[in-house]
Amino acid sequence: MMKIRVSFVLALLLLSSSFFLQVARCQSDSDSEDAELVAETVEEGGDLGIVDDDVQDFGIGNYSPAPGVETVCVFPKNPTKLVVAGQETELLIGMKNEGDQHIKVLAVHASVHLPFDHNMLVQNLSTQAFNNASVPSSVQATFPYIFAVSKFLQAGTFDLVGRIVYEIDQIPYENTFYNGTIEVVEAGGLVSIETVFLVSLGISLLVFLGLWVRGQIQNLSKKTKKGPKVETGTRSVDASMDEWLEGTAYTQSKASKLKKKK
């Protein structure tokens, strides 16, 4: 029974580990596709513009996206999206203009929310305004955005919502270039929850594997210690059988044989 239980737990852990590896692989593939698209925008060029020190209120969150405008986001050299509290983190925004008109990029803004409820705002990040940033028709461009979450923010998983505001023919529009999770860690503690989980899972697998091997060795040693069964050549008669046959011809003949032996 113990062997069946250990085997079941081991199989369950293996299935869970394969699931997380598959999720991680899918996430990595998605990030690589975004990175390729951003790389294409860098190769094709585009005016990155100048970051303006005078930050204005662009009414972020009040505009709809323009047709024919696509945006993607990638965290360069940070595929796990690990954000250290109080330190700057850089991301790249790729914008593709498939429309017929010129795009004037105004600003980039982001905010941090609780993952289970985006109405619960954790922090408004800095607004990065651009001056003379443009994306002509049928052109792709890349825009950097550097942000930093509060150093007092508790470590954990949060949702980052990033938006880019632009104008087409003096009409403001807005695209959400990123709406996903980030892992916030304290400065000096770069161990994420996923890392702790994977390490714990690996240790558990090693422990259960050791228990299974130990059980197999114990079963093998027990089998080798058991010797062959030796027959004595005489048949023992149960005492209850003697009581049941007491007074019969069987017991009398047995008594006479004993007297002859004496």
From TrEMBL:
Heterotetramer of TRAP-alpha, TRAP-beta, TRAP-delta and TRAP-gamma. InterPro entries: TRAP_alpha. GO terms for cellular component: endoplasmic reticulum; endoplasmic reticulum membrane. Shows a remarkable charge distribution with the N-terminus being highly negatively charged, and the cytoplasmic C-terminus positively charged. TRAP proteins are part of a complex whose function is to bind calcium to the ER membrane and thereby regulate the retention of ER resident proteins. May be involved in the recycling of the translocation apparatus after completion of the translocation process or may function as a membrane-bound chaperone facilitating folding of translocated proteins. It is found in: Endoplasmic reticulum membrane. Keywords: Calcium, Endoplasmic reticulum, Membrane, Signal, Transmembrane, Transmembrane helix. Residues 1-26 form the signal peptide. The chain crosses the membrane at residues 195-213. The keyword Ion transport does not apply. This is Translocon-associated protein subunit alpha. It is a single-pass type I membrane protein. Pfam families: TRAP_alpha. Belongs to the TRAP-alpha family.
